[in-house]
Design brief:
The chain contains 21 helices and 17 strands. It is of the alpha/beta class. It has two domains: about 375 residues, TIM Barrel (Alpha-Beta Barrel), CATH 3.20.20; about 150 residues, 3-Layer(aba) Sandwich (Rossmann fold). The longest helix has 18 residues.
Length: about 625
């Protein structure tokens, strides 16, 4: 595998996107034999045609136009509305299932968003919905961390048994720590292969936001880093990996969600940067993605006064979507709204008005509306009110139909459930994820030269303290199990990040009798949507450990900026993510089983610069 490291040249001038390479044999295997017992369809399935949105082949044009001519205005509007569903098991008489069938069969929605579930249940459920759809459904999903971000079985209670699933990668910032575009490409490749095998056609990734605000509660490690050139280079590589293997990539959140301390799920963020700053930072990765031929771009539910003085969120702004993205930047692909049930658009405009404004602004797809029927009604009403024309709707629907044709869905809409275990979570795919995790571990600080721990005897007493939310069942499990392979006398303790009670005195006593104390923080992960900071009792406990001479090694599996709260600790390590693959890599790195080579893709003001990191053989 070739490694490409910074400095990275600026993107080349925009050019027409060449046709993607032929899909790999693994993709063909993932889609073979659609006529199986799980979905009795009289089809045989070839490798999917690769999407070429923006430069559609004549066959795509002909198929899209022929289908478009048969649709009523309301049916066209429904193609632009995509509801969300869980990948859970539901019987056919359950209200949740009947609601889905109504949206697909009766309302005629054009696509779906699949959320969490086991690989087999996701595939079976999507096949069943494809079967009742008059037109093939485009299925999207947030697979920022690989197909395993959504397609995993979770943990079985009360034993916290990991039920396994698709391959899951560390968050994008871990790739930034490796500086390796080849690994970003590989993640895209693996995600496309596994995602298409599940019946997912669009990956709502990569995140192209430049995380230049340490207090950002919603992007954080989802970004590749704070350097726009690094984000652009890794984003381009991921896009190529996805789109050269039969899946559609989506750059998000345009024009940039990195410099905000507000979560757009909960309120309207405002990015007050100047247009000059936006051009040199936030917009750089999106320009690179367009140059690379990205097929879709997702919008930002946030206001940028430098781009639109009205204060409208970008999703609802013609100046941003039509003027800047389509006009100035030359993007011809599909514009996907961020979820239309988020407060960033609902609080000021309400559901129906937000739908109309998004379409008028230039959006082609409206995902996760509060109600499917209401969304379709609003979209149609906007045309009747003269907010936009039916020709404007036709333009969006034609793009979506061409995308369906180029993805091969006009003839092959089902997946082979029996082939899943040969493809999804394959050992070679897992090996790529492990390599990323191991290459990403970053030692920011080791003032007492405590690392690696492998210099201690096997009889050493190790205290491993896990700080996490009680609902985070996997926190610390793989990390402690890996430590115990070398240090059988490892003692584990759990501190509930949501419990304000101060239990530090008992743990301080245990640390006094330990040879090594490791404090692992899982606070501030991507799903901690309100804050990235640890509670005061947690910070106090770590500070007291340092003051009493316990020499704690702090490992951040959540918010990498945690050092700002505990600057006095003698050793600080960033693992970038809490998934088992990162827990194992972090433990192996501390033990000295693997070299430590990660470099910060962010700065941690004022304690660590961009590019910092100690190399430990």
């Amino acid at each position: 595998m070739t490694t490409h490291r910074l400095p990275i040249p600026a993107p080349a001038p925009r050019r027409a996107r060449p046709l993607a390479a032929r899909p790999s044999a693994l993709i063909a295997a993932a889609m073979l034999a659609a006529a199986c017992g799980h979905h009795p369809a009289p089809q045989t399935t070839a490798a999917p045609r690769l999407p070429t949105v923006g430069h559609p082949a004549p066959a795509s044009d002909r198929w899209a136009d022929s289908v478009l001519a048969t649709l009523t205005l309301r049916q066209k509007a429904a193609q632009m509305v995509w509801p969300n569903l869980l990948g859970d098991y539901v019987p056919t008489d359950a209200p949740a299932w009947r609601k889905l069938v109504h949206a697909v069969a009766d309302e005629g929605v054009g696509g779906l968003l699949i959320s969490i579930g086991s690989p087999e249940e996701i595939a079976v459920k999507l096949n069943a919905l494809q079967r009742v759809a008059a037109l093939p459904l485009l299925v999207g999903s947030d697979l920022e961390y690989g197909a395993g971000q959504r397609a995993r079985g979770g943990y079985f209670l009360p034993n916290a048994i990991d039920l396994g699933g698709a391959t899951i990668f560390p968050p994008q910032m871990a790739f930034g720590a490796t500086r390796d575009t080849a690994l970003a490409y590989e993640e895209g490749r693996v995600t496309a292969i596994e995602g298409r095998a599940l019946g997912v056609h669009i990956d709502f990734a990569p995140v192209l936001d430049v995380n230049n605000n340490a207090a950002n509660p919603v992007i954080n490690t989802r970004s590749y880093g704070e350097d726009p050139r690094l984000v652009a280079a890794l984003g381009r590589a991921f896009i190529r990996g996805v789109q050269e293997h039969g899946m559609i990539a989506t750059g998000k959140h345009f024009p940039g969600h990195g410099d905000t301390e507000t979560n757009s799920h909960l309120a309207l963020p405002i990015v007050s940067a100047s247009r000059a700053r936006l051009d040199t930072v936030e917009l750089v990765p999106f320009r690179a993605a367009i140059d690379a031929g990205v097929d879709a771009i997702m919008t930002f539910h946030g206001s940028m006064p430098a781009l639109d003085s009205s204060g409208a969120p970008a999703t609802l702004s013609p100046a941003v979507l039509t003027g800047l993205l389509r006009g100035d930047m030359g993007f011809h692909g599909v514009i996907v709204s961020d979820a239309m049930d988020m407060r960033g658009v609902l609080d000021r405009y309400g559901s129906a008005e937000a739908i109309k404004r998004a379409v008028a602004a230039g959006a082609d797809v409206l995902i996760e509306p509060t109600d499917v029927t209401t969304a379709i009604d609003a979209l149609v009403a906007g045309e009747h009110e003269g907010r936009y024309t039916e020709a404007r709707i036709d333009t969006s629907v034609r793009r979506l139909l061409a995308l369906k044709h180029d993805a091969g869905l006009d003839t092959h809409r089902f997946v082979d459930v029996d082939s899943l275990r040969q493809i999804v979570g394959d050992s070679a795919h897992q090996a790529v994820a492990r390599q990323v995790a191991e290459r990403s571990i970053t030692v920011v600080k080791d003032s007492l030269h405590a690392l690696p721990l492998g210099r201690l005897t096997h009889a050493a007493r190790v205290l491993s303290v896990t700080i996490a939310h009680r609902a985070d069942l996997g926190a610390g499990l793989t990390f402690a199990a890996t430590l115990r392979q070398t240090f059988p006398n490892t003692r584990t303790e759990f501190v509930d990040a949501d419990d304000a009670r101060d239990d530090s005195w008992r743990l301080l006593g245990e640390a006094d009798s330990a040879d090594v104390t490791i404090v692992s923080s899982y606070v501030g992960q991507f799903w901690d949507v309100t804050t990235v900071s640890a509670a005061a009792p947690i910070v106090s406990f770590i500070q007291q450990l340092a003051q009493r001479g316990a020499r704690p090694i702090v490992v951040s599996f959540g918010n990498p900026y945690f050092l700002q709260q505990v600057p006095s600790v003698p050793a600080y390590v960033v693992a970038w993510g809490a998934f088992p693959v990162s827990q194992q890599a972090a433990a192996r790195a501390l033990l000295g089983s693997i070299p430590i080579t990660g470099r910060l893709p962010i700065s941690i003001p004022p304690y660590a610069p961009f590019g910092g990191g100690l190399a430990i053989p």
